Protein backbone atom coordinates (compact mmCIF):
# COMPACT_ATOMS: atom_id res chain seq x y z
CA UNK A 1 0.00 0.00 0.00
CA UNK A 2 1.43 3.43 -0.89
CA UNK A 3 2.58 5.54 2.04
CA UNK A 4 0.07 8.32 1.30
CA UNK A 5 -3.12 6.26 1.57
CA UNK A 6 -5.25 5.98 4.67
CA UNK A 7 -4.84 2.42 5.82
CA UNK A 8 -8.11 0.56 6.20
CA UNK A 9 -10.12 3.19 4.30
CA UNK A 10 -8.85 2.79 0.75
CA UNK A 11 -6.66 0.43 -1.19
CA UNK A 12 -5.85 3.05 -3.82
CA UNK A 13 -3.49 6.01 -3.59
CA UNK A 14 -5.03 9.48 -3.76
CA UNK A 15 -6.20 10.33 -7.25
CA UNK A 16 -6.35 6.74 -8.54
CA UNK A 17 -10.12 6.34 -8.26
CA UNK A 18 -12.19 7.89 -11.01
CA UNK A 19 -15.61 7.87 -12.60
CA UNK A 20 -18.38 6.08 -10.76
CA UNK A 21 -16.46 6.10 -7.47
CA UNK A 22 -16.99 9.85 -7.09
CA UNK A 23 -20.64 10.79 -7.34
CA UNK A 24 -22.12 14.20 -6.81
CA UNK A 25 -23.91 14.76 -3.51
CA UNK A 26 -26.34 17.07 -5.32
CA UNK A 27 -28.96 15.47 -7.54
CA UNK A 28 -28.79 16.75 -11.09
CA UNK A 29 -25.31 18.26 -10.95
CA UNK A 30 -22.65 16.87 -13.27
CA UNK A 31 -20.22 14.38 -11.78
CA UNK A 32 -16.57 14.72 -12.59
CA UNK A 33 -13.39 13.50 -10.91
CA UNK A 34 -10.83 16.23 -11.50
CA UNK A 35 -8.41 15.00 -8.87
CA UNK A 36 -8.37 14.18 -5.21
CA UNK A 37 -7.65 16.33 -2.20
CA UNK A 38 -4.85 15.07 0.00
CA UNK A 39 -6.06 14.62 3.60
CA UNK A 40 -2.46 14.85 4.78
CA UNK A 41 -2.21 18.41 3.38
CA UNK A 42 -4.66 21.07 4.59
CA UNK A 43 -4.28 23.01 1.31
CA UNK A 44 -4.09 20.41 -1.48
CA UNK A 45 -3.88 22.94 -4.33
CA UNK A 46 -1.53 25.36 -2.52
CA UNK A 47 -3.73 28.40 -3.22
CA UNK A 48 -3.57 29.80 0.32
CA UNK A 49 -7.10 28.68 1.25
CA UNK A 50 -7.55 25.49 3.34
CA UNK A 51 -9.48 22.63 1.70
CA UNK A 52 -12.12 22.64 4.44
CA UNK A 53 -12.83 26.35 3.94
CA UNK A 54 -13.11 25.85 0.17
CA UNK A 55 -15.51 22.91 0.57
CA UNK A 56 -17.67 24.74 3.12
CA UNK A 57 -17.93 27.93 1.02
CA UNK A 58 -18.20 26.31 -2.43
CA UNK A 59 -21.38 26.99 -4.38
CA UNK A 60 -22.54 25.80 -7.79
CA UNK A 61 -22.46 28.65 -10.30
CA UNK A 62 -25.19 28.34 -12.92
CA UNK A 63 -23.52 31.11 -14.93
CA UNK A 64 -20.13 29.37 -15.09
CA UNK A 65 -21.54 25.82 -14.83
CA UNK A 66 -18.84 25.03 -12.29
CA UNK A 67 -18.05 25.15 -8.56
CA UNK A 68 -17.05 28.56 -7.21
CA UNK A 69 -14.34 26.95 -5.04
CA UNK A 70 -12.54 23.65 -5.46
CA UNK A 71 -9.85 22.25 -3.13
CA UNK A 72 -7.92 20.77 -6.09
CA UNK A 73 -8.05 23.86 -8.33
CA UNK A 74 -5.30 26.33 -7.46
CA UNK A 75 -6.78 29.01 -9.73
CA UNK A 76 -10.04 29.44 -7.83
CA UNK A 77 -8.49 31.91 -5.40
CA UNK A 78 -8.63 34.57 -8.12
CA UNK A 79 -12.37 34.14 -8.68
CA UNK A 80 -15.02 36.61 -7.51
CA UNK A 81 -18.30 34.68 -7.93
CA UNK A 82 -20.30 37.04 -5.68
CA UNK A 83 -19.06 40.08 -7.65
CA UNK A 84 -18.21 42.09 -4.53
CA UNK A 85 -14.81 43.17 -5.82
CA UNK A 86 -12.88 40.81 -3.52
CA UNK A 87 -11.31 37.61 -4.79
CA UNK A 88 -11.98 34.32 -2.99
CA UNK A 89 -8.46 34.48 -1.56
CA UNK A 90 -9.03 38.03 -0.25
CA UNK A 91 -12.34 37.00 1.32
CA UNK A 92 -10.68 34.05 3.08
CA UNK A 93 -7.87 36.24 4.42
CA UNK A 94 -10.22 39.04 5.53
CA UNK A 95 -12.13 36.56 7.71
CA UNK A 96 -9.10 35.32 9.66
Characterize the structure shown.
The chain is low in regular secondary structure. The protein is 15% helix and 4% strand. The chain is built from two helices and two strands, in the order αββα. Strands 1-2 form a two-stranded antiparallel ribbon. β1 and β2 form a beta hairpin. The longest helix has 7 residues. It starts with 50 loop residues before the first helix and ends with a helix.
Uncertain residue ranges: 1-10, 18-25
Question: Can you count the helices?
Answer: 2
Q: Mean pLDDT, as a whole number? A: 74
**Total beta strand runs:** 2
Strand order of the largest sheet: 1-2
- What is the helix/strand order? HEEH
Query: How much is the radius of gyration in Å?
Result: 15 Å
Helix content percent band = 10-25%
Outline the fold blueprint.
Layout lengths: L50 H7 L2 E2 L4 E2 L20 H7 L2
Antiparallel strand pairs: 1-2
Distinctive features:
single chain, 96 residues, little secondary structure, two-stranded antiparallel ribbon, 2 helices, 15% helix, 4% strand, disordered N terminus
Summarize the structure.
The chain contains two helices and two strands.
